[in-house]
Amino acid sequence: MKIFNRFPNLDSIFNKMILSYIIIVLFITLVLGGTFYFYFTASYNEAVENVHLKMLEQVKNTLNTKIIETVESNYMILVHEFISNTNDLFGFHDDVSGNHTKILQTYNYLKKIVSNNSTVISNIHIYYKKQKILISSSLGVKYLNETNWPYYMNQDWINEMSGKNTSHIWLETRKVPLNLERPDTSLKINLLTYVRSYPVISTGINSDGFIAIDINESIFSDLIKMSAPSEYTNTFIISGTGEIISHPEKDMLNECLNDQKYIEHILDSRMLYGSTVDEVNGVKSMISYTSFPDTGWILINITPLSQFYEKTASLTRMLVILCLMSIIIGTVIASLITKNLYNPLKLLLDKIRSLIGNVNAGIKRSRQLVINTGIQHKANEFKIIDNAIDNLYLTIDDLTKTLKNNIPIIKYNLIMGLLHNQIINVNEAREKFRLINIDMDFPYYAAMTIEIESLRDISYLSVENMHFLKYNLIDETEKNSNDSLKFIAVDLPDFRIGVIVGATTTDEKEIGKIVSNLSSYAYNSFYVTITAALGRWVDNILNVHNSFNDTKTLLKYRFFYPHVPLLHADTLERENCQEHIPPGLIMKFQESLKLQNINRIKELMDKFRSLCSKGGYSADHLNQVMFEFVNIVSRYIRDMKYQFKDIEKKDIYAVFKNINNVNEFCDWIVELARSVINGLNERAESQNAILINEAKRYIYNNIKKDISLDEVAEHINISPAYLSKLFKENTGVNFVTYVKELKFELAMDILLNSDLTIQQIAHEVGFNTPAYFIQQFKARYGYTPNSFRKQKSFLETEQ
């Protein structure tokens, strides 16, 4: 009150200011306090619910990423291995006979996958329908015959998947015995199982077999506990039928909650996530949930309302106290601030008046007001305000320059965000385009990816020069923008450039001309070649990420269109093509290679080259066919025991990986076949080959005898030492090993294709006694001759 007593004149600016501030403080405090009092509780509770839902969504994403996606990706790794067969796995169409090594390798490969993913995957099983074989990382190799079928049909996923008309299922938590042969006494664990048919596009009914991956239920519980430790005891997962899949209390597993009202509400809801309030075990609780779209599971958290909203009451009381304190403190501060701000404000007004020529009047008024308020005038206040204005100008200028310097960064983040679906708000995109002064208001949009085709073309460039090359290509691309066509380009990893195209029409002729000119510019300026892929058009720039994904698929076809600068979206139709390269082409190639007909091989590769560009086959299928060509040549080289003289040609798969286009591939295959054929002809013409062939003939004709190196050397008129050296060089094994191998091959053939006794077979292949033959046979194959013959008969019966 003393302040007001000092200034009774309400017409003065000072008194009006202080009175206005106090009224404003009172009004704002009462309005905001009342508003917050009535609405803050609801808003705060809603915010708490949203945060809770986001936490639950994060837990779901963690489970999906670390468990479900890991399981599905390992299935795809197995499928890829079966297709490429780089690990020589036992295929779904392979015969059991003669493929025991492949079966063992498949078993070891499954154990390797489980070992590499032991934190998620417990077991992996493969069931072969045709062969009725189960290969399992935990069970080993099991032939499902009538004797042991009941034990291994405890693998319930086989029965479950066999009748399904879908490609995959999730078997929810159930207790599975560790020892299937003793299910009543064996320890049981809670497992979930992901089962998917093979091939990928088949169903459980028409598939060649199944791949099953077991996951321990405790992994879900542990991840939930790690992601949300405070909510762990209240969080669990149910299936689409209301059955508990994962729960902190293991006694609750498999319990069906369909009779619970809140579960009915969740299952009947069409929302992927949400929350509701209901009674659970007589306690009113907040029930939050979110769904796993791929599996149909639902993650649920139940928190009592008293715990959920426990902070709301205290915050409401605190709000009332703060409002009262704000009124008191605001009144005091308003008085102090008015007193402190009055003189600088007046000086600022005087400065403004002086700028318009009213200097003298301004000075007189200023002095009079300073005297009236009792505040001493400070000589440097004018300079402070003046400097503040100058500094403000400099600050704005610096901010403008900073914004200009950051335009490339803003542009890069904007384009990358659109291409990777990280911008979901149109207004946000428009605001950022406005900041970088780019008009992207077009009816149609598409993504284009430009790829510098060969690393070998630019291997001589340093990192700095590589960036210089890419930024020149970006600049050259954007220079082609006009009123009807706009290009915005950014640098992408792996020698690629990403472009967003805005257009008034979907006609791609002009884009084709621009890309052709850009290709010429890249070659003439930097001696590199480029290929561009243009995705499908969209009418909303936020959907341009779909077009960008199209370009990734299109670039797979650049290998088969080596001289096409721009790949159009209509090529994507080939992805859905179910046609295959005529199998006769591959068979004729194999026959021509065996017949060493190089002219025929060249004709076949020219035909394949034509089918790649003119046919409608998918890139994946064509890659598989090319891999088959390489496999045929590789097998032929191995079968013929041919060794390249040129060390660079020895690893043909490494050479194959570095080929850039189908023309290079076809020429390379022809040249490779020519090199092998010429080398084999040279070897066949040598005298050493003649000698070895004669020695082999003599050994074969006299296999019943106890043949010695000296005897064969004498027959072909050379020294034993030289014959031993020739055998090692031409066959890869020494003389004794070769004779022994031949004896076992003949014995195996007689054993499987005749009814001769073991004694007769031992005599036929030159073993001194049947006992020694049986001993050597078991040491080599792991079976006695009789056991092996019975095993072969059993396998043929099973098939």
Could you characterize the architecture of this molecule?
This protein is 56% helix and 14% strand. With 799 residues, it is of the alpha+beta class.
Regions with pLDDT < 50 over 5+ consecutive residues?
A: 1-8, 356-382
In percent, how much strand structure appears in the residues? Answer: 5-15%
Strand order, main sheet: write it out.
3-2-1-6-5-4
Multimeric state: single chain
Q: How far is it from the N-terminal to the C-terminal residue, by CA?
A: 107 Å
Q: Specify Rg, calculated over alpha carbons.
A: 41 Å
Question: Which structural class should the secondary elements be placed in?
Answer: alpha+beta
Continuous helix count? 28
* Sheet of most strands: 6 strands, antiparallel
Question: Helicity, in percent?
Answer: 55-70%
DSSP summary, beta strand count: 16
Mean pLDDT: 80
- Give the overall shape, derived from the CA principal axes: flat
Concise synopsis of the structure shown:
The chain has 28 helices and 16 strands.
Any descriptors?
799 residues; alpha+beta; six-stranded antiparallel sheet; five-stranded antiparallel sheet; 28 helices; 16 strands; 56% helix; disordered N terminus
List the helices and strands and how they pair.
Elements: H1 2-6, H2 13-84, H3 100-116, E1 121-128, E2 133-136, E3 140-143, H4 149-152, H5 156-162, E4 168-177, E5 188-198, E6 209-216, H6 217-227, E7 235-238, E8 244-246, H7 261-268, E9 273-280, E10 283-291, E11 298-304, H8 305-308, H9 310-355, H10 359-373, H11 381-405, H12 407-419, H13 426-435, E12 444-452, H14 463-478, E13 485-492, E14 496-503, H15 509-526, E15 530-534, H16 544-554, E16 566-567, H17 583-595, H18 598-614, H19 619-639, H20 652-657, H21 662-684, H22 687-701, H23 709-715, H24 720-731, H25 735-753, H26 758-764, H27 770-781, H28 785-798
Parallel strand pairs: 15-16
Antiparallel strand pairs: 1-2, 1-6, 2-3, 4-5, 5-6, 7-8, 7-11, 9-10, 10-11, 12-14, 12-15, 13-14
Helix pairs in contact: 2-6, 2-9, 9-10, 9-11, 12-13, 14-15, 17-18, 17-19, 18-21, 19-21, 23-24
